[in-house]
Amino acid sequence: MVMDSLIKRYSYTITRNDFVTAGKSSSDIKGNLKAIGIDAKTIRKIAIISYEAEMNIVIHSMGGKLHCDIYEEKIVIVCEDEGPGIPDIDKAMTEGFSTAPENVRELGFGAGMGLPNIKRYSDEFKISSSDNGTIIVVTVLI
Amino acid sequence: MKNFELAKKLDLESLLEIDKDIKVEGVYVGDLLSVVMSKAKADYIWITIQTHINVMAVAELLDISCIIVVENMEVEADTLQKARELGIPIFKSRESAYQVACKLNNMGIK
């Protein structure tokens, strides 16, 4: 079997509580995928995944990184933050469960759909979390 | 349909002075951004009461055709600025989401 090798990595730094520029990384990823000729259906999936991952870092973490890795046959979104970690991953994966504060919910965030949406639109979903941070690796096949 | 035609038919205030053809593949009503992200699609009209700038990030990522802000909610200046940059028409209505949706339905948009 031939190993799928990394063609290109796009990386972004996401700042905690920055609701004004939030979404910019996802928008940039979308533009890059469009430019290299990825189909609209796959772009939509990646846009949803990267937006939710980006907003999770903004709302729930101390800040972190978002990467979009392009391979021949798949796109992988890697999201790593600096903590404080998710105490109960099963609960966080439940649709409608949210720990977002009230002021953030008023802006339309915190629907409790972030992680469930990421999983729904992915072909492979991995999550691990500790006090030091959460890492999410999401694969979408092209 | 031109954006000013849509504004006239639905009695909307156009918040951007842009001339644009609006494709309408469907309509989605929603205020929770993650739910909109998952359900609305390209060339949809999005009806909402949210006016925060992040609304434009969602609209851009989904290729939303236009946004109708209902209940006469005040749209923030930076949201308008972003809409202008992205060329996404944004309208305001005094009516409710339900009333605007009914009018779109009467226009034959299902």
Q: What's the number of structural domains of chain B?
A: 1
Q: Quaternary status of these chains?
A: heterodimer
- Please report the total strand number of chain A as a whole number: 5
Q: What would CATH call the homologous superfamily of chain B? A: HprK N-terminal domain-like
Task: State the name of the first-level CATH class of chain B.
Answer: Alpha Beta
* Poorly predicted spans of chain A: none
Question: Helix count of chain A?
Answer: 5
Largest interface by Cβ-Cβ < 8 Å: A-B, 25 and 22 residues
**C-alpha termini separation of chain A:** 18 Å
- The count of strands of chain B amounts to 5
Q: How are helices and strands ordered from N to C of chain A?
A: EHHEEHHHEE
Q: Which CATH architecture of chain B would you pick? A: 3-Layer(aba) Sandwich
Mean pLDDT of chain B: 95
Radius of gyration of chain B: 12 Å
**What would you give as the CATH superfamily of chain A?**
Histidine kinase-like ATPase, C-terminal domain
Class inferred from helices and paired strands of chain B: alpha/beta
User: Helicity of chain A, in percent?
Assistant: 25-40%
Neighbour order of strands in the largest sheet of chain A: 1-2-3-5-4
Domain DRTGG (chain B): 41-107
Keywords (chain B): Kinase, Transferase
InterPro entries (chain B): DRTGG (IPR010766), Ser_kin/Pase_Hpr-like_N_sf (IPR028979)
GO molecular function (chain B): kinase activity
List keywords for this structure.
heterodimer; A: 142 residues; alpha+beta; Heat Shock Protein 90; 5 helices; 5 strands; B: 110 residues; alpha/beta; Udp-n-acetylmuramoylalanyl-d-glutamate--2,6- Diaminopimelate Ligase, Chain: A, domain 1; globular
In short:
Chain A contains five helices and five strands.
Q: What do you see in this structure?
A:
The complex is a heterodimer of chains A (142) and B (110). Chain A has 5 helices and 5 strands, in the order βααββαααββ. With 142 residues, chain A is an alpha+beta fold. Chain A has a single domain (6-141), classed as Heat Shock Protein 90 (2-Layer Sandwich), CATH 3.30.565.10. In chain A, a hairpin with a 2-residue loop joins β2 (64-71) and β3. The mean pLDDT of chain A is 95. With 110 residues, chain B is an alpha/beta fold. Chain B has a single domain, classed as 3-Layer(aba) Sandwich (Udp-n-acetylmuramoylalanyl-d-glutamate--2,6- Diaminopimelate Ligase, Chain: A, domain 1). Chain B contains 5 helices and 5 strands. Chain B has helices spanning 3-10, 33-39, 54-62, 77-86, 97-106; strands spanning 13-14, 26-29, 44-48, 66-69, 90-92. In chain B, α3 (54-62) runs parallel beside α4. Chain B is globular. Chain B: It holds the Pfam family DRTGG.
